Here is the input.
Amino acid sequence: MPTSQPASPVFTAAGRHTLALVAREARADGVREVLAPRVRCTAMTTPFELEGLHVTNVDCAPSGLLDPGALAAALAACNRQPLILHAETFGNRAGDELRAVLAAARSTGARIVVDATHTALERAEELLTDAEPEAARPHDADYLVASLRKLLPIPLGGVVHGLARPTAPTRDELNADLAAVAAIAERHRDVPVLKDAVEDLLDLAWAPAPMPGPYRARLAAPGLGAELTRRRARLARLHAAVADLDVINPGAAYPPVIAHPQAAAIRTALARAGFSPPLHWPGVTDGLVVLPDDPRAAAIARRAAGPTALREALAAGEASGPAEPFDFDAFISSKTPKTA
Ligand SMILES: Cc1ncc(COP(=O)(O)O)c(C=O)c1O
Here is the structure.
């Protein structure tokens, strides 16, 4: 386990950079395997693979979090203590059962990384603290990491708490380009391709880089608290608007995530209405719709979900008893205007 010496958090340009710092430290201490949730994006595990760690997929519960039984089975198969990546996906937090498996694993030497990217609105205060006072250290984990650029109002940013040997990330040319393009993309939000360029550059820039100074300053600005309160309130209203649907993260400070058999069609309807594609991890979130943070999105999702509801109602009707035989010809002739 890392030493218990409190150390400062490290602020980086992206979440993947924080995971790279964790991967380096764990690798140097002899860790060789990461148990990672199957519900995730590649940027969460590539940093570990780049450091030569083996990634083992662990099945998730419907909440998107590690399934406690699957995690226990994966732990039992490890021949040395692994690192467990526990992501608070969709803003969901571990329940008692998962917490118990994580605590038991930690007590026998496994390291726990909590990825709070999706709980960053809820955990903003502890994530953004500059010092590493004892109270701000993760109590039930070794590392607390987050990509801050998903839910907080900055285009580049990540943070890691709990590194035993924190090293300041260094600047390199690619990361300087990244910061420049991110700044341009922010000035021209109406040009989505610029935002894509930031993501493309990030997929090349795996070397941990520091968070650009202006974004660090923005996170320390006095108005941030009020802005985050507004964001949380807006999300709470959005949750209330879809509470009757199959929402897998009720009450989370994260956009509602709806499980629906027509999820792909709903995502298409949202894209056609001009919403930039919200989170979708192909192969693992195919049956889910992450609702954009906009009240109009709820209405569009409902409309797109409608045909299924109708089909389900018809199927239920069919199941309720044999249908009357339908005379198609009689129906057509009843509709055809009769000539005298
Ligand atoms: C849960 C989670 N952790 C980490 C990351 C990586 O963050 P970044 O894209 O800032 O590197 C992502 C990206 O989608 C994520 O969803």
User: Anything to note?
Assistant: The chain has two domains: 10-165, 224-319. The pocket of pyridoxal-5'-phosphate is lined by residues 14-16, 41, 43-44, 87, 115, 117-118, 147, 149, 158, 202 (CB under 6 Å). Confidence is low (pLDDT under 50) at residues 318-326, 335-340.
